[in-house]
């Protein structure tokens, strides 16, 4: 039985995707990486990470390889995007030189730098990526809500964007938190991290020993503690002694994947505005919100998870399993429906098997999952991308449809609002969809009424050299 490198993306609304750059042996943010070290203090992680590889080899299939080959220059090794709570969408990319470039909306200083472009003469934006100044040595990053956070080689974490989250991680000795959007700021209260994951006004870091600490909004017990608070500093999440491989903080619900491939959830269990959606945590609970992290039953070999305010999907073994609201076909079960269900497989495997009928290769296995309020997408081991949900034609909602037009195989996908971006194995990023506030990253300022506002043909992002 073989166990190859697997990509496990941390996601909210739109996934922040971290991959391995094969050309420089930079391993960033995969489930297998829970057991890998990039500093002297992480030997314990090697033992923890072995559990995931062992669990993944129980079935006769290959775990997809999410490597970036770095054929492009500049070469992107990680991609993240989010449609913010208090702003429009933006993306950030981690390059193989360990710097970060961002583009799109710059409300709340989400890009990490001052921009001089305006949309509609009032909204700050950047229609092309630019480097975040004074930020180097970045080994992982995450975009969520109105914030981005980056983990540096020494384990320190810097965040920018919405000032509430930034202020909750700052030391009082650093002075008052910014009154509005923040530029990259060191989170002195946050413990040294192996990696970082950002949700909507909540962020988490994973320690070298597999522990998990979170800070920010606690209104629905996102920090796994009482009483509920609009804002709180970092504290350790009690996960019952389990070692955490990946964290996925959401809007109101929280998820974490253990090194043995289990999924843990806590926080809000029902969906806003939906009377039928009552299992957002993937389990039945007598308390909502639920401050106690507990296992999602029936799921194993979990490698990736993506969550929105109304539904969640996970890559579990051979399948993508989803739960929550299905009014627009978000659960990928072939058709919309207003009945919420506990985790169950999508029909993605059926669709890919039908497309591959008669071909000599083995079944395609999901590599990564991304979700937003507009659609849910899966990247397959073959590099194909399939999407389903509200953006699909009405008669096809709930059925995974293949995305055509990418110039090469994808290893990761990030979604924000009406825009989708794929990270290709070559290290190129290609985007399609809406270009409001320059979110396609092509250096073009399209307004919402312009004819080029929506472009469904994927095209490369123009990165700064």
Description of the structure:
The N terminus is likely disordered. With 465 residues, this protein is mainly beta. The chain has one domain: Methylamine Dehydrogenase, Chain H. The chain has three helices and 33 strands. The protein is globular and about 65 Å long. The chain starts with 9 loop residues before the first strand and ends in a 5-residue tail after the last strand. The strands form seven sheets. An eleven-stranded mixed beta sheet has the order 8-9-7-6-5-2-1-22-23-24-25, with no helix packed on it.
Summarize this entry quickly.
This protein has helices at residues 43-56, 163-169, 348-355, and strands at residues 10-12, 14-18, 20-21, 67-68, 76-83, 89-95, 100-105, 117-119, 123-131, 138-144, 147-152, 157-161, 182-186, 195-198, 202-206, 212-218, 229-236, 244-249, 253-258, 263-267, 290-295, 302-307, 311-316, 319-324, 341-345, 366-371, 376-380, 385-388, 401-402, 410-416, 419-424, 429-434, 454-460.
Q: Characteristics of this structure?
A:
465 residues; mainly beta; Methylamine Dehydrogenase, Chain H; eleven-stranded mixed β-sheet; four-stranded antiparallel β-sheet; 3 helices; 33 strands; 6% helix; globular
């Amino acid at each position: 039985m073989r166990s190859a490198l697997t990509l496990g993306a941390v996601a909210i609304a739109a996934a922040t995707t971290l991959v391995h750059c094969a050309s420089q042996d930079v391993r960033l943010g995969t489930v297998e990486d829970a057991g890998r070290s990039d500093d002297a203090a992480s030997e314990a992680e090697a033992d923890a990470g072995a559990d995931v590889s062992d669990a993944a080899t129980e079935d006769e299939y290959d775990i997809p390889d999410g490597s970036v080959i770095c054929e492009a220059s500049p070469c992107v090794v990680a991609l993240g995007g989010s449609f913010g709570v208090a702003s429009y969408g933006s993306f950030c990319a981690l390059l193989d030189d360990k710097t970060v470039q961002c583009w799109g909306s710059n409300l709340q200083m989400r890009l990490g730098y001052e921009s001089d472009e305006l949309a509609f003469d009032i909204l700050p934006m950047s229609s092309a990526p630019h480097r975040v100044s004074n930020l180097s040595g970045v080994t992982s990053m995450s975009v969520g809500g109105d914030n981005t956070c980056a983990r540096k080689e020494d384990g320190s974490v810097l965040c920018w964007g919405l000032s509430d989250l930034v202020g909750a991680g700052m030391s009082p000795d650093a002075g008052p938190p910014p009154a509005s959007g923040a530029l990259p700021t060191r989170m002195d209260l946050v413990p040294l991290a192996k990696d970082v994951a950002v949700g909507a006004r909540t962020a988490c870091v994973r320690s070298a020993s597999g522990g998990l600490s979170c800070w920010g909004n606690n209104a629905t017990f996102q920090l796994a503690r009482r009483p509920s608070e609009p804002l709180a500093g970092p504290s350790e999440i009690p996960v019952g002694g389990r070692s955490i491989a990946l964290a996925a903080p959401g809007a109101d619900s929280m998820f974490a994947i253990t090194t043995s491939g289990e999924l843990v959830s806590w926080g809000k269990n029902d969906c806003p505005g939906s009377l039928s959606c009552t299992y957002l945590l993937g389990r039945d609970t007598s308390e909502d919100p639920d401050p106690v992290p507990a296992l999602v039953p029936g799921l194993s070999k979990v490698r990736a998870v993506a969550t929105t305010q109304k539904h969640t999907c996970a890559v579990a073994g051979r399948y993508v399993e989803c739960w929550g609201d299905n009014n627009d076909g978000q659960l990928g079960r072939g058709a919309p429906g207003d009945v919420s269900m506990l985790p169950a497989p999508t029909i993605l495997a059926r669709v890919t098997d039908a497309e591959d009928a008669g071909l000599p290769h083995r079944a395609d296995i999901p590599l990564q999952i991304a979700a937003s309020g507009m659609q849910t997408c899966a990247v397959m081991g073959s590099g194909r991308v399939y999407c389903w949900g509200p953006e699909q034609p009405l008669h096809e909602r709930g059925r995974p449809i293949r995305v055509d037009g990418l110039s090469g195989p994808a290893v990761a996908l990030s979604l924000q609002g009406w825009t989708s971006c794929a990270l290709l194995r070559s290290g190129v990023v290609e985007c399609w969809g809406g270009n409001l506030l320059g979110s396609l990253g092509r250096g073009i300022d399209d307004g919402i009424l312009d004819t080029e506002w929506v472009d469904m043909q994927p095209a490369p992002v123009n990165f700064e050299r």
